[in-house]
Design goal:
Elements lengths: L4 H4 L8 H11 L4 H11 L4 H37 L3
Protein name: Cardiolipin synthase N-terminal domain-containing protein
Keywords: Membrane, Transmembrane, Transmembrane helix
Length: 86
C-alpha cells in the first residue's frame, strides 16, 4: 500500500527547483535573510524549507560562537602583548 500523505499535505511535498531558487534569492538579501530564516524555520510551511532554515540557523549560531571565541583569544593575546611592553 502506498501512503498518500505526501499528495494530500502540501507542506510535505518536495520543493521544485523554482521554489528553491526563490528561497536562495530571498536568503541572499541582507537583513531580510535573517528574518526569513526565522519565519521559515518556525512558521507553518514546507518541511524541506523548514529543515533547511533550521540547519542554516544552527550553522550561523556555531559561526557566531566560534567568532566570539576567536575574538576573545586574539584580544587577550593582544592585551597581554601590549601590557608586557612588546
Amino acid at each position: 500500500m502506498e501512503n498518500n500523505t505526501m499528495a494530500t499535505d502540501p507542506n510535505k511535498a518536495v520543493m521544485t527547483m523554482g521554489e528553491w531558487l526563490i528561497t536562495l534569492i530571498v536568503l541572499a538579501i541582507p537583513c531580510v535573510n535573517v528574518i526569513m530564516y526565522f519565519v521559515w524555520a518556525f512558521g507553518n510551511g514546507n518541511e524541506n524549507r523548514k529543515n533547511f532554515c533550521r540547519a542554516g540557523l544552527i550553522v550561523m549560531a556555531v559561526g557566531i560562537v566560534l567568532s566570539l571565541i576567536l575574538y576573545a583569544v586574539v584580544g587577550a593575546s593582544l592585551a597581554a602583548a601590549l601590557s608586557a611592553g612588546y
